[in-house]
Automatic annotation (TrEMBL):
<dbReference type="InterPro" id="IPR036388">
    <property type="entry name" value="WH-like_DNA-bd_sf"/>
</dbReference>
<dbReference type="InterPro" id="IPR005119">
    <property type="entry name" value="LysR_subst-bd"/>
</dbReference>
<dbReference type="InterPro" id="IPR036390">
    <property type="entry name" value="WH_DNA-bd_sf"/>
</dbReference>
<protein>
    <submittedName>
        <fullName>LysR family transcriptional regulator</fullName>
    </submittedName>
</protein>
<keyword id="KW-0238">DNA-binding</keyword>
<dbReference type="GO" id="GO:0032993">
    <property type="term" value="C:protein-DNA complex"/>
</dbReference>
<keyword id="KW-0805">Transcription regulation</keyword>
<comment type="similarity">
    <text>Belongs to the LysR transcriptional regulatory family.</text>
</comment>
<dbReference type="Pfam" id="PF00126">
    <property type="entry name" value="HTH_1"/>
</dbReference>
<dbReference type="GO" id="GO:0003677">
    <property type="term" value="F:DNA binding"/>
</dbReference>
<dbReference type="InterPro" id="IPR000847">
    <property type="entry name" value="LysR_HTH_N"/>
</dbReference>
<dbReference type="GO" id="GO:0003700">
    <property type="term" value="F:DNA-binding transcription factor activity"/>
</dbReference>
<keyword id="KW-0804">Transcription</keyword>
<dbReference type="Pfam" id="PF03466">
    <property type="entry name" value="LysR_substrate"/>
</dbReference>
Length: 298
């Protein structure tokens, strides 16, 4: 039995006339009659009564009609589901995100994505930048949001957003009242930083910036995640540098100050080259739209 047999049967059952059913199916009547006879032979039951020029459904035919309609509807649903999955509008998407993305970009992007693509099962994991490339390559994540470093073989990347790197000080620190600082102002300060393997690109950027300003940062305390790092700064363990997006989630006892010479830090999306699910492309579109809508009006 093939799907076409179900379509033939439903057409005859609804028309109760082989000629009209044949016209509806754009075929000749004799082949249609033979197909219905073959279907009845395969099932081992009569589906239609045939009395002179009148056609009717047998009890078995009435039952089969309901099941055939349901089967055809299910096939239509399956085809539409496959099309939606191919367009990235249905399925599963696993996203990893560095803290800077979680604090600044991801809440709005996630809401917009779920509004546009409610049939995609979106799962989010906060994860350090250093861990995400392996998770993506080993297919435990579909897309990652990281502070990028060197090019990763087999991985595609796109810069999603840039933001300022800022100094973070305890509220009562003598420099906390300054709107803008130079990195050299922090040369004698102890630093609180995350472990290098958690975000190698940002860690190296911080070290390089400090060295360009004439000093190597004295790391008094390593802390992770960033909530703990901010708490340690607030407790007076030292100062730190971090992306501006963390300011919105910082405790009241720390102060973010702009830096004169710090270049912007980048947030990038990464995914497996040529092997990402279609929903990843839809998520990238939403990220771009979210970043664009957050820009101040000109």
């Amino acid at each position: 039995m093939e799907l076409r047999h179900l379509n033939y049967f439903v057409a005859v059952a609804e028309e109760l006339h082989f000629g009209r059913a044949a016209e509806r199916l754009f075929m000749a009547q004799p082949p249609l009659s033979r197909q219905i006879q073959q279907l009845e032979a395969e099932l081992g039951v009569a589906l239609f009564t045939r009395e002179k020029k009148r056609v009717g459904l047998t009890p078995a035919g009435a039952v089969f009609l309901g099941e055939a309609r349901a089967a055809l509807a299910r096939v239509d649903e399956a085809m539409e589901a496959a099309r939606k999955a191919g367009r990235g509008e249905r399925g599963r998407l696993r996203v990893g995100a560095a803290t800077a993305a979680v604090c600044g970009l991801l809440p709005a992007a996630t809401q917009l994505f779920r509004e546009r693509f409610p049939e995609v099962d979106l799962s989010l994991s906060e994860m350090c930048s250093g861990q995400q490339p392996r998770e993506v390559l080993e297919r435990r994540l579909d897309i990652g949001l990281i502070m990028p470093s060197a090019e990763i073989p087999g991985m595609a990347a796109e810069i999603i957003r840039t933001e300022a790197l800022m100094a973070i000080l305890p509220q009562g620190h003598p420099l906390a009242s300054h709107a803008v600082l130079s990195l050299a102002d922090l040369s004698d300060e102890p630093f609180v930083l995350f472990p290098e393997h958690m975000g190698p690109a940002l860690y190296q950027k911080i070290v390089d910036l400090c060295q360009a300003a004439g000093f190597t940062p004295k790391i008094a305390q390593e802390a992770t995640p960033h909530g703990t790092l901010l708490a340690m700064v607030g407790a007076g363990a030292g100062v730190s540098l971090a992306p501006a997006s963390l300011e919105g989630s910082s405790p009241q006892n720390v102060v973010f100050c702009r830096l004169e010479e710090a270049p912007p830090v980048e947030l990038a999306a990464i995914w497996r080259m040529g092997d990402a699910p279609a929903a990843a492309a839809r998520f990238l579109e939403v990220l771009r739209d979210t970043v664009e809508s957050a820009k101040p009006a000109r």
